[in-house]
Amino acid sequence: MRSRLFFLLILLLLPLSIRAETTWTVQDDGTMQSIRGITGSGDVLVAVGNTGNRMRSTDAGATWTLLSSSGSVWWHDVDVAANGDFLAVGESGAYAYSEDDGATWASASLGVSNTFYDIDRAASSTGYVVGASGTVVYYANGNWFSGTPNVTETLYAVQDNADGTAWVVGGAGRFLKASNNGITWTNFGRIGSDTLLGVYFESASTGWIVGENGTFKKTTDGGVSWLTVSVSGLSTQHLSDIQAVGDRMVVAGDKIVLLSEDGGDTWTSESFVDENITFYTSYVRDESHVWVAGTDYDVYSSVYHYEVVEDVVEEEPATEESVDPGFSLGEPAEAEPSNLIKLTCEEGADVNDPCRAVYYYATDGKRHAFPNEKVYFTWFDNFDDVIEVSADFMSDLTLGSNVTYHPGTRMVKFQSVPTVYAVARYGELRAIASEDIASDLYGSDWNQQIDDISDAFFSNYSFGETINSVQDYNKDEAQASVNSLDDNF
Q1: What is the per-residue pLDDT across 101-133, written as a single tens digit (0 to 9) for each?
Q2: Cα–Cα distance between 161 and 76 in angstroms, integer?
Q3: Residue 289: which of 247, 248, 252, 254 has the closest Cα?
């Protein structure tokens, strides 16, 4: 009873409420011909596009200035590097940079003459550019190098994960992952037959791709399998870009924009058919400010700003008789840290439905996904202790790093690399130098105790010193180094 009364008194002291209003505002209509890329830093926005045009705003898009044209070069994308430089890429290997927030630009060469379509530099030490005929250029050790993904389709979008890995999509449904700062490539084949134009991953396992003819798909297992995302109002419109910050996500397309404010769990659409605006690009500054940009009839540039405004609304204080929370503050949450959790599946849900995914709710307050059952069963014997929770409860938990193999239980190798590793605490892999050492550590049947790891999960692990003798690693001590999963994050 005391908890009910306390809650009641709190409500009586709060006469104000906050209501969120959202608005779309046209910020540009015709400064240049067509916009293909937009990005920003603070209140400075830069857009690039057809016929060498670049334009800039210093007041969050309220007004725009056309910068000097660079001839006939068509720009396809612009990005802000970790050091604050603006970078643009375009036709015939064109590359330009600005060190003064986009006010002035200088050209440089990346050593490639193929057309570039996308650039992403998420960290000071990494970066990727992709383009025509399978072109990839990656940034490492302060220089740009040509990558060899061994595909011929045009690559239209890349996401640099700032850890040496990147996701890449392109023509005819091509889907790739780069590892080792662009040296190693995993080809996942084709995700359908439609050209893919945008990619965004929130973690190593969960991501989305968009493309032509209404292609909109989501994966929760690092790109191994995909489910179609259905949104009211979306049919066969081309979708050109997907961007996100926090829980705010935006997809830009042909006369349509898709928005999510809950990290991609639900989506709404906004139609621009009457305005005839084809949006090619988007930029999310924070969860309250989104820009989408493109062209009207491929003649006039267009920039629309989406803003979430919180209004404070006066309300009469509630009376004691009208306020009853209906529960005791002492009631427990749906699950507690150190529990295994999953969503409740609706009747008829197939084996690939996201409700099948089991997470570990860790003491760090995050939910951690198991990449597959092999990893799961190195930690747990069965699924008896899994708790079903609501979608609201699940979405309130930040997605943390994937669960890695229990130390000391199994040896592992990646599908594209022959090296066999022992597993140490925190997902550290240690290469085993020889078969004799593996036999001494794991017995004569050591080669039956090796699990393959998909290259898609390469970034889940770190790498330690090579095991050159049996004295370098004790699998029993490795197993005993963790009492629970919480000890491994």
Answers
A1: 999 999 999 999 999 999 999 988 899 999 999
A2: 21
A3: 248
> What is the C-alpha to C-alpha distance for residues 29 and 208, in angstroms, rounded to an integer?
30
Whole-prediction pTM? 0.62
> Residue 419 CB: number of other CB atoms within 10 A?
13
User: Which pair of structure tokens corresponds to residue 434?
Assistant: 């020889």
Say which range, 102-106, 154-158, 445-449, 465-469, has the weakest mean pLDDT. Answer: 445-449
Q: Which residues of 425-436 are buried (b: 16+ CB within 10 A; e: fewer)?
A: bbbbbbbbeeee
pLDDT at 310: 60
The CATH number of 17-311 is 2.130.10.10
Please list the residues that pair with 56 across neighbouring strands: 46, 65
- Tell me which residue has tokens 């399998």: 225
* Spatial distance between the Cα atoms of 479 and 410, rounded to a whole number of angstroms: 10
The number of helix segments (H) and strand segments (E) in the chain equals: 5, 38
CB–CB of 219/369 below 8 Å? no
What residues pair up with 341 in beta bridges, in sequence order? 359, 387
Q: In whole angstroms, give the CA distance from residue 151 to residue 386.
A: 42
Domain boundaries, the chain: 17-311, 339-399, 411-488
Chain centroid offset of residue 266 CA: 16
The answer to whether 35 touches 293, Cβ cutoff 8 Å, is yes
